[in-house]
Amino acid sequence: KSILVGALSLLLGERVDSKVVRDGSERAEITAEFLIHDLKKVREVLESNGLFELGRCTIKRIFEQTGRSKAWINGNPATLGQLREIGMHLVNIHGQHDHQLLTRASEQRQFLDNYAKTTALLEKVTESWNEWQCAEEAKRLSEEQIEANAAKVDFLKWQLQELEVVDYSKESWPALESEYKRMANVATLSESMSASSAILYGNDNSIDDRIALLKKAINSVIEYDPQLKEILDLVEAAEIHIKESILMAKAYSQKLDFEPHKSSKLESKVDKAYVLAKKHKVEPQNLPQLRQNMEQEIRSLNQKLDSRSLDQAANEAKKQYEELAGELSERRYVAASALEERVTEAFGLLAMRDKIFKVTLTPITGGATFGQEKVEFCLSSKSVAGPQPISRVASGGELSRISLAIQSVMVDVVKVPTMVFDEVDAGIGGAVAEIVGRLLSDLGNKHQVMCVTHLAQVAASAKTQWRVVKNNDGAIVSSSAELLDGPSRIKEIARMIGGLKITETSLQHAAEMLDSSSRQF
């Protein structure tokens, strides 16, 4: 049984030395498979670690003679940390030397919260705590950086003052740039338009006059050949376009007036835009967005400089946390009182009538992510002045029964599917052993329960029974476990009752015990 329980512990991430490997062997190998269809938390942990495999979780661990070990989860290499993270949601081992449940504060707190049905409220408390801490951190950073932020605001305002010339939008920049180029070249444009006008009209050899002469020449001979009408039509169409271009050229020339003041102002604006664009390494049309970004950054920095708003945000976050955590505390205190009463009652059934179960809730100054109190499972009795942590005052033989009492009370809220009780019957017998067997059987209705026992009353309460046998052929000592059928089980129960000598009376008693236990199922 030590090998079996020990092997399971190793699969759950327990550290080991080379002694686990049999002398003369190179390595030891352990493998276990768990069905996880209904285990949401296990599936989440596997998925978050990239180890998920539909419907099952296979854990394998190999130990070398040198002391080194390797682990796999669903065929993927795994660390001891991952084994422990997965294992704590798969198996709880309760034994004389076990400390997974009874000494782990987080597990005790989780048991109480599950019993109080405050899981959803606890999530809100945790979220509120994080928001409060973020608000406090923002306030602290603001206080540390207030001088640097003030200097940065001054610098940004100076840069923003430079960008005052940027009074255009990204969309209007092309038109502004085009107007700048026109006004910068107004003399050249005027000279060009004068030359163009002279060619189009205004002298004896202009295009306008020559087209008139062309029309006259064609008209003088068109009566001799009607086909000339097509040429005349094209010339007249050209004449229309020429006249339109003449009108447009005259209108353009009239508007092409040089305005020194307007030109100088526009030139200054565009030149500054080019300089600023080069300085900030952006295109001129993107300067408006740069200005907008600076204004937004100044507003953001000013908010950080405003300690009053940060104080208010932190105080509001703190108030919300304290309200939620206060509600959580109230529900924990109510649940703790009920849990104390029920577990103490279970102690009485397990021959621990002098023990009183206590749930100590110790306030935490300032609170924590899990609430405003530390949760600890304790025992008190006539020999102990006040409640003491279970791990300090419970004897080795009592630890398993304490675990059994807690688990039996919390059977509906315990999420771990497999429970192992190692010699939960230590130091008891008779009617108490029957009660232990009944409690284990009740747990087995909702969980996979394995129990190492030397008492017939406990063994008879199980739905199935295995016998662990040590074999010695003179050379090698080995152990094995075999599943007992009906007759074999009666024999084993009889042996547990009467020792090595099995009598008809012990066989009859064993059969009656198994029959009585089977009716409980």
Can you give a write-up of this model?
There is one protein chain. This protein is of the alpha+beta class. The strands form four sheets. Strands 1-2-3-4 form a four-stranded antiparallel beta sheet. Strands 5-9-10 form a three-stranded parallel beta sheet. It has a three-stranded antiparallel beta sheet with strand order 6-7-8. Helix 6 packs across helix 10. The longest helix has 44 residues.
Secondary structure: elements and pairs:
Elements: H1 2-11, E1 27-35, H2 40-48, E2 56-64, E3 69-73, E4 76-78, H3 80-87, E5 91-94, H4 105-116, H5 119-162, H6 173-184, H7 186-200, H8 207-221, H9 228-255, H10 260-280, H11 287-305, H12 307-349, E6 356-368, E7 371-380, E8 388-389, H13 390-393, H14 396-409, E9 418-422, H15 430-444, E10 448-452, H16 456-460, E11 466-472, E12 477-483, H17 486-498, H18 504-520
Helix pairs in contact: 4-12, 5-11, 5-12, 6-10, 7-9, 8-9, 12-14, 14-15, 17-18
Brief summary:
The protein is α+β, with helices and mostly antiparallel strands. The chain contains 18 helices and 12 strands. A hairpin with a 2-residue loop joins strand 6 and strand 7.
CA-CA gap between termini: 26 Å
Strand content: 15-25%
Helical region count? 18
Q: How would you characterize the largest beta sheet?
A: 4 strands, antiparallel
pLDDT averaged over residues: 81
Secondary-structure-derived class: alpha+beta
- The geometry reads as elongated
- Record field, number of beta strands: 12
Helix content: 55-70%
